[in-house]
Amino acid sequence: LVTGVQTCALPISRRTPGLEPKYFSRVKMRLFIDRVYRALQMLLTFLIGILIIPVTIQIVARFSEYVPHFIWTEEMARFCLIWIIMIGASIAVRDGAHFDVDVLPHPKTRGAEAIARMTVHVGILVVALIFLAFGWRFTEFGFEQESELTGINMASIHVAWPVAGLVWTLFMLEKLYDDFQLLRERPGDPL
């Protein structure tokens, strides 16, 4: 079973031409995107757990004379926070949890709803492509720098921007595909 749909047991030569390859490629793509999404959720959870360690050390060191004041904890917390923000933003893009402003009246038909959603999704896609393009330049700049305290190459931190742009692009293409499907089905039907 592939996401609740049974695969065809007929040989390729006896299958109905035209329908199955497209359908199964969509299923495979959805599975891939779902796995990326799930991996991001697990990575976010892991990074939040890691963030707790240096922050706890900082707090305990501030109020205790027995724990030395480590300088690396602040930098580690900052680097984890950058990745947490970018991964969290990627998850929010997939969930549709980003900030929306209602400027136009609410659409009354499925077609108008699809066009309104496409407008928002194209805007997010443009921002994602900007993050991807300029984030790569930012990462190249990071290759030339090292962290003062830990000696970490800054490209490992700067790469969070193009990675976020790439993931946003992937998620937006999925949403735009869904919007086109909504527009194709019955655009004149009321919501």
Describe the structure.
69% of the residues lie in helices and 0% in strands. It is built from 5 helices and no strands. Residues 1-16 have low confidence and may be disordered. α3 (110-142) packs antiparallel against α5 (160-185). The protein has helices spanning 20-63, 72-95, 110-142, 155-158, 160-185. The two termini are 33 Å apart. The protein is elongated. With 191 residues, it is an all-alpha fold.
What would you call the structural class? mainly alpha
Terminal Cα separation, in Å? 33 Å
For the sheet with most strands, the description reads:
none
Find the count of extended strands (DSSP E, 2+ residues): 0
Number of helices: 5
Mean pLDDT score, rounded? 83
| Poorly predicted spans | 1-16
TL;DR?
The protein is mostly helical and 191 residues long.
What are the key terms here?
191 residues; mainly alpha; 5 helices; disordered N terminus
Break the fold down into its secondary structure elements and pairings.
Blueprint: H1 20-63, H2 72-95, H3 110-142, H4 155-158, H5 160-185
Helix pairs in contact: 1-2, 2-5, 3-5
